[in-house]
Amino acid sequence: MKGERTMRILISGATGGLGRALARALKGHQLLLSGRRMGELQALAEEVAGKALPANLTDELEAKALCEEAGELDLLFHAVGSAARAPVREVEREAVERLLGDHFLSALFLLKHARFRPGARAVFFGAYPRYVQVSGFAAYAAAKGALEWYLEAARKEFRKEGVHLVLVRLPAVATGLWAPLGGPPRGALPPEEAVRLVLEGVLGERPPEILEVQP
Predict the structure, then answer these.
(1) What is the pTM of this model?
(2) Looking at the domain covering 8-212, what would its CATH class be?
């Protein structure tokens, strides 16, 4: 896929740290940028000569409308996410539903309605189990696990369409996702470095089903 024609790329969660870095790294392609913060989204679209398509992807009707406007894609990046920490006996239902919506349902709705060109890649961001299967992160780990196992089954269906589904396991990345938790952990990757490593793996001739990015 490297060095080919200009690609049509949809980046969801484009105003987050990872999505923003992806948009900047892929400037020059036909970029469709989706997010919930319209002001930031429009500013980013102007910066990278892309098109702003605001949407709340946890709402299936909005996800469907986004995919219809986006048209056939060469690349899809699902960079939507949130974080929360709470003990099992104290976690609020609202927090669990938000995590499942952001990490899992938004991906489900995108895959259900997206249209792809032959050979397209759809990229989703998971996590190393050892980083999230820790005290206080049970709900977050469940949301990431739901996404990973969903993709494992969906991959078999999309393979018949010539579409590659890639799950990226990332270490901690220094983005605003960590703000509710007091900031990123020590040693977190800068988003620009994380994106460089992701694109090296995703844009190769044979993208892996699971891409493990090492810090």
Answers:
(1) 0.93
(2) alpha beta
